[in-house]
Amino acid sequence: MVAGVELGGTKVVVVRAQGKNIMDLRTIPTREVATTLGSVLDILRAWHGETPFAAMGIGSFGPLRLDRQAPDFGIMLPTPKPGWAGADIYATLTEPFDCPAAIDTDVNGAALAELRWGAGAQGAVPSDSLCYITIGTGVGGGFAFNGRTVHGALHPEIGHIQVRRAPGDEFPGVCPFHGDCIEGLVSGPALAQRFGAPGHSIASDDPRWDFVASDIAQMVTTILMNVAARQVLIGGGVGMGRTDLLDRVRAKVVALAGGYLPYIDEASIASVVSAPLLGDRAGPLGTVALALGALDGIRID
């Protein structure tokens, strides 16, 4: 039995699993730090009392310090989430339990789950590299290459890369750090400000969606050019909620690639840029993958 905690900006999902099979799942709202982590610990302690778990995986929103040699390992760095900067995520959740544990970003965990059990595991030849992007309250991205998640000095911050703006798009963006980075342009709050209403209420034929598709396609093409991932999965409330938007993004990625990438064309793009196969289970299963990696001695974090 292993335990997993997916700590998101609006909710926390706590699971216990045998192998990749989730046996129990609880969801609680993300409130202030002490209340939220205390509620998570209550669940974990109850489960551990019934059947001690052999390992724990934590996938959290960020930014996080993931360098085990750093004095602030496992601590939340400055974040737009009020009150969470400096929260000691790893130590608070793992110290009560004597078992191996791993921590990573929630999107890195989701990428790992999709690589092992989802989109990356389909087809005659399993994928060795994918990027998982979630577009919702924010924009995050994680990478899983050759069975491992990817980070170095920090971890991927795809949501804050700059993109080339579409001609005529004057929307200034909403990111408090960068204005019109990709998160400032296409996240849920950005769409609400751009459209003057929540994105899900805007008709698919509204011409402003073309600007949004262009921004996302710029991000996807940048990823493909930089790391040559075999797959880019677009999830989250925005990513999985509008298949029409995904079709627009695919067409624009093909155009932006300009024939330079031999594996990107109209025939192949649907298999390269797609929705996550695991759907909203990618995040919780990501924490399970992290826990199993810790149990096997794989230094995922």
Characterise the protein shown here.
By secondary structure, the protein is an alpha/beta fold. The protein folds into two domains: about 1-105, Nucleotidyltransferase, domain 5 (2-Layer Sandwich); about 120-275, Nucleotidyltransferase, domain 5 (2-Layer Sandwich). About 35% of the residues lie in helices and about 20% in strands. The chain has helices spanning about 35-50, 90-95, 105-115, 180-185, 190-195, 210-225, 235-240, 245-255, 270, 280-295; strands at about 1-5, 10-20, 20-30, 55-60, 100-105, 130-135, 140-145, 150, 230-235, 275. The protein has a five-stranded mixed β-sheet with strand order 3-2-1-4-5. A five-stranded mixed β-sheet has the order 8-7-6-9-10, sandwiched between helices. The longest helix has 19 residues, at about 210-225. The protein is globular. GO terms for molecular function: fructokinase activity; metal ion binding. It is an enzyme of class 2 (transferase). It comes from Sphingobium terrigena.
CATH homology group of the largest domain: ATPase, nucleotide binding domain
SSE succession: EEEHEHEHEEEHHHEHHHEH
Q: Report the total helices.
A: 10
Q: What is the count of β-strands?
A: 10
InterPro entries: ATPase_NBD, Carb_Metab_Reg_Kinase/Isom, ROK, ROK_cs
Catalytic activity: D-fructose + ATP = D-fructose 6-phosphate + ADP + H(+)
Protein name: fructokinase
Keywords: Magnesium, Metal-binding, Zinc
